[in-house]
């Protein structure tokens, strides 16, 4: 699948023959006809053809670097055309390969609270293949499908296959509804179903949402985690300059499960930034701090409390208007009052994406 | 005696206009035909390489020369069509008196079809038959003619005529009078086929 996506990306890159209108170019030694290009740019901008206008402004500046107004217009248009965080495209595919090392593989099966209190810590590496598709038939409707396959190097019983379907709807400018459903297998056995519904309000740069997660874990040692999770989340975004985008978020969650041992409160603080280095290159960083506090005493009469720190760094390189390469490194460190729940994880990913439609 | 007839004032006016043309931005492209040809060639090369945005900019620059080549529309129209700007493409090509160059005519038919001016497109495609397009393009032409004939096998509902009349107003407002005229003609044809006696 990754090969197919890479091929698709290459085809799209070839099909997208015009270079990026927002890429830097070196000035020409002899200025010729710069005023004409600038007038073409102004005409195209007036017609709403911003890509072509940006290209023509760039050419006007390239031919006569003393035309600061042409360069300023090019930069202004490119800030609009290539925002640091672009709106989602109409159709996109993404494939990534990921290598990961975990110090405690038994904690891998579930995304949320570690599930297997009896499993002894055991380290292993894994290779993961991720494929995703996103489709936005209308601006207010988003559909998605994610597939993931993880192959452990040593502990086959934790090999994982997962599929997730998503649907999002924005009935009003300030309201969002979302639904996700995912199924997974672990070591070849059906491991469970997870469903998630979300309602959110978005006012300008502020967003507040409530997310309800229902889980039906099927494996023997996680079956107690059947239950509901409630999450309240709030985020705020800011863009101090055209090149820098910031987001801060806080969340509070509660898990009510069939087995009281798993009931807990959790909270997190997340800070994210995206910085555009060049018109085609964006670097992103995210730092998250999370805590969990369990209601019941553990089997060793310990009350489990976890503190988790997660850091992510990624580099996004648009090789053409449609094709993006992504490299990402992510580290997680979890410290728990119950030693079995300590874990560390290091993930390195490389992926390719192809997008069509506005972005 | 009116002011316009005053020779000294007229001379001053001509001088001022000349000065405005010389100093005003944007200036015309170099009158040097070699320079114009260079831009035209750059546009053609970009078009052939599929770099349609670059091609359009070069052709627009050529269009700003004091005496643009007579066949500029044959380059500009297809480029606009490739960029999905079918209305502009059709208007540019319609401005050229018939008979047009074969490929330009083919692009015009396609642009009209994209603008849902099906009957006008059919007329263009039918006119292309037997003009030596070659078997592949003849096939394309036949396919378009077949599509339009299938579409109009039954008379369209009268409400469609109203849609075309609205489009005519929109195109006129956008300064595309030739396209607007075709929308009006298409609307009249639809009314006639639908048996409307208005």
Give a quick summary of the entry.
The complex is a heterodimer of chains A (359) and B (198). Chain A is built from 4 helices and 14 strands.
Give the SSE layout.
The complex is a heterodimer of chains A (359) and B (198).
Chain A: H1 2-15, H2 34-46, H3 50-63, H4 68-81, E1 91-102, E2 124-138, E3 141-152, E4 160-172, E5 175-186, E6 189-203, E7 206-217, E8 227-241, E9 244-257, E10 264-278, E11 281-297, E12 303-318, E13 323-336, E14 343-356
Antiparallel strand pairs in A: 1-2, 1-14, 2-3, 3-4, 4-5, 5-6, 6-7, 7-8, 8-9, 9-10, 10-11, 11-12, 12-13, 13-14
Chain B: H1 7-23, H2 33-48, H3 52-63, H4 72-82, H5 86-94, H6 102-114, H7 118-128, H8 135-151, H9 159-173, H10 177-193
The largest sheet of chain A, given as strand count, sense and whether it forms a barrel, is:
14 strands, antiparallel, barrel
Q: What is the arithmetic mean of pLDDT of chain B?
A: 83
Biggest pleated-sheet summary of chain B: none
Number of strands of chain A: 14
Uncertain segments of chain A are 109-118
Which word captures the global form of chain A?
elongated
Q: How many strands of chain B? A: 0
Biggest protein-protein contact in the assembly: A-B, 21 and 21 residues
Radius of gyration of chain A: 24 Å
- How are the strands of the biggest sheet of chain A laid out side by side? 1-2-3-4-5-6-7-8-9-10-11-12-13-14
The helix content of chain B, as a percent range, equals: 55-70%
Number of helices of chain A: 4
| CA(first)-CA(last) distance of chain A | 24 Å
**What is the SS-derived class of chain A?**
alpha+beta
Distance between the amino and carboxyl termini of chain B: 52 Å
Q: Give the amount of beta strand of chain B, in percent.
A: under 5%
Question: What best-fitting shape of chain B do the alpha-carbon axes yield?
Answer: globular
């Amino acid at each position: 699948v990754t090969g197919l996506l890479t091929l698709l990306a290459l085809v799209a890159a070839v099909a997208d023959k015009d270079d990026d209108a927002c890429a830097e170019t070196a000035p020409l030694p002899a200025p010729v006809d710069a005023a004409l290009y600038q007038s073409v740019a102004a005409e195209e901008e007036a017609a709403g053809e911003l890509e072509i206008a940006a290209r023509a402004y760039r050419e006007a500046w390239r031919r006569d670097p003393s035309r600061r107004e042409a360069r300023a217009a090019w930069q202004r248009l490119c800030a609009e055309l290539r925002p640091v965080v672009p709106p989602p495209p109409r159709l996109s595919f993404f494939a990534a390969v990921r290598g990961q090392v975990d110090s405690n593989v038994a904690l891998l099966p579930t995304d949320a609270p570690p599930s297997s209190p009896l499993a002894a810590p055991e380290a292993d590496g894994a290779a993961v293949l991720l494929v995703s598709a996103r489709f936005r038939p209308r601006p207010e409707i988003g559909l998605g499908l994610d597939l993931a396959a993880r192959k452990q190097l040593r502990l086959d019983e934790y090999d994982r296959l997962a599929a997730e379907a998503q649907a999002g709807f924005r009935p009003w400018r300030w309201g969002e509804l979302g639904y996700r459903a995912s199924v997974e297998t672990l070591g070849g056995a059906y491991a469970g179903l997870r469903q998630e519904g979300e309602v959110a309000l978005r006012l300008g740069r502020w967003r507040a949402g409530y997310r309800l997660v229902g889980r039906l874990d099927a494996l023997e040692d996680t079956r107690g985690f059947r239950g509901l999770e409630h999450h309240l989340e709030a985020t705020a975004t800011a863009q101090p300059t055209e090149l820098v985008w910031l987001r801060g978020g806080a969340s509070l969650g509660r898990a009510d499960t069939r087995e009281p041992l798993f009931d807990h409160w959790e909270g997190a603080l997340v800070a994210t930034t995206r910085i555009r280095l060049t018109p085609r290159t964006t670097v992103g960083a995210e730092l998250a701090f999370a805590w969990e506090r369990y209601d019941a005493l553990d089997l060793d009469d310990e009350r489990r409390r976890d503190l988790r720190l997660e850091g992510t760094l990624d580099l996004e390189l648009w090789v053409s208007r449609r094709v993006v390469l992504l490299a990402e490194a992510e580290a997680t460190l979890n410290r728990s009052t119950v030693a079995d729940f300590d874990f560390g994880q290091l993930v390195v990913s490389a992926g390719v994406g192809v997008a069509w439609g506005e972005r | 005696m009116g002011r316009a007839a005053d020779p000294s004032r007229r001379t001053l006016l001509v001088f001022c206009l000349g000065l405005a043309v010389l100093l005003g931005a944007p200036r015309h492209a170099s009158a040097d035909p070699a320079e114009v040809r260079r831009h035209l060639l750059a546009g053609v090369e970009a078009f052939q390489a599929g770099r349609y945005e670059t091609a359009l900019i070069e052709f627009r620059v050529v269009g700003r020369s004091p005496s643009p080549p007579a066949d500029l529309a044959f380059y500009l129209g297809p480029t606009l069509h490739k960029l999905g700007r079918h209305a502009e493409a059709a208007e540019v090509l319609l401005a050229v008196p018939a008979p047009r160059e074969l490929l330009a005519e083919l692009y015009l038919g396609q642009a009209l079809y994209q603008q849902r001016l099906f009957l006008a497109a059919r007329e263009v495609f039918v006119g292309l038959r037997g003009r030596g397009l070659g078997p592949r393009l003849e096939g394309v032409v036949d396919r378009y003619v077949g599509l339009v004939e299938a579409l109009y096998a039954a008379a369209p509902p009268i409400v469609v005529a109203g849609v075309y009349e609205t489009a005519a107003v929109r195109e006129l407002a956008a300064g595309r009078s030739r396209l607007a005229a075709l929308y009006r003609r298409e609307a009249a044809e639809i009314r006639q086929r639908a048996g409307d006696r208005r």
